[in-house]
Amino acid sequence: MNNRLDTRYPVLPAILERWSPRSFAGRQPEAHKLQSMFEAARLAPSAHNTQPSRFLLGRKGGMAYEKLFTCLDPHNREWAHCVPVLVLASVMRRRFSQVKADFVPYPHCMHDLGLSVMSFMLQGQHLGLHCHPMAAFDPEKAQRDFDIPPLFAPGIIIAVGYLGDPGALPPDLRVRETGPRTRRPLEEIVFEEAWGQSSSLFAGQD
Ligand SMILES: Cc1cc2nc3c(=O)[nH]c(=O)nc-3n(C[C@H](O)[C@H](O)[C@H](O)COP(=O)(O)O)c2cc1C
Fold first, then answer.
1. What is the biggest distance separating any 2 CA atoms in the chain, rounded to whole angstroms?
2. Does residue 206 have a pLDDT over 60?
3. Beta-carbon neighbour count of residue 144 at 10 Å?
4. Homologous superfamily in CATH for domain 13-165
C-alpha cells in the first residue's frame, strides 16, 4: 500500500516509509528484529545521558500482552486486537543528580522517551515492520497491573507487527487507513531571523 507523504527533499527510506497503520498481520515479528529495535532504542541520546526509558514487551498469547491490551482505550482496542506485539514504553520521572546527591526534577523525560521510541520505530521500519504509538491508554492501570515503581511513568504503548489487510478493518477505520495523510508545509514550521518568518530555505520554493 502506497501511503507515503509527499516530500520536496530526500529523507532516509525508513522515515519516508514509516506510518502508523491499524491493520496488522497476525504473524509474530522475528526475535532478531525486536532485538535490533530495542538496541536502537538503547542508543538514543538523553539529557545528562540519564537513559530514562524502560520497555515492557508483550507478545500475543502471553500474560503481559493481555494486560497491556486491557489498558488500551476502546477506540484503540477496536483495531489493536490483531497486533502481534505490544510494547509499553515508560520513563523515569526524576533523575539522580550526583551534585545534589538526590533525585531532581527531570522536565525533559518525555522528550528523551520520545527519542528512544522513534529510534525503536525507525529501526523496525528499516526491518520491514510497522509501529503504531498509542497514548490513549490508562497509565494508572498499567502502573498497578505491572507493579511499576512510582519513579517511572508509563508513557506510551506501541503496536508492532507486519502490515495487514486494510479490508479486514471495520468500514470507518478502513476509510481512515487508506485516506490521505497530511503534514504542515515547511514554510509553516521553519522560521529564520524572527519567529513566524518563514526561512528563506523554503519560502518561494516548489
Ligand atoms: C504521542 C503519540 C500518541 C498517539 N496516540 C495514538 C492513539 O492513542 N491512537 C491512535 O490510533 N494513534 C495514536 N497516535 C498516532 C498518530 O495519530 C499518528 O502518528 C499521526 O496521525 C500521524 O500519522 P502517521 O504516524 O501515520 O504519520 C499517536 C502518536 C503519538 C506520537
1. 57
2. no
3. 12
4. NADH Oxidase (3.40.109.10)
Residue nearest to atom 29 of ligand 1 (CA): 133
Nearest ligand 1 atom, CA 132:
15
Of 19, 31, 43, 29, the C-alpha closest to 119 is: 43
- Determine which helix (DSSP H) or strand (DSSP E) holds 114, and give its type and residue range: helix 109-126
130-134 and 152-161 beta bridge pairing:
antiparallel
pLDDT tens-digit map of 140-190: 999 999 999 999 999 999 999 999 999 999 999 999 999 999 999 999 999
What ranges do the domains of the chain cover?
13-165
Query: Which residues lie below 8 Å from residue 56, measured CB to CB, with a gap of 6+?
Result: 64, 68, 87, 88, 90, 146
Atom nearest to 136 CA in ligand 1 = 8
CA atoms 63, 66, 69, 70: torsion sign: negative
> Does the CB atom of residue 3 touch ligand 1 within 6 A?
no
Q: What is the pLDDT of residues 62-104, one digit of tens each?
A: 999 999 999 999 999 999 999 999 999 999 999 999 999 999 9
> What separation in angstroms does the CA of 112 have from each of 19, 35, 37, 52?
21, 20, 16, 7
Query: Residue 105: what pLDDT?
Result: 95
Q: What is the distance between the alpha carbons of residues 146 and 11, in angstroms, rounded to a whole number?
A: 38
Mutate which of 20, 68, 132 to test ligand 1's pocket (most atoms within 8 Å of Cβ)?
Answer: 20
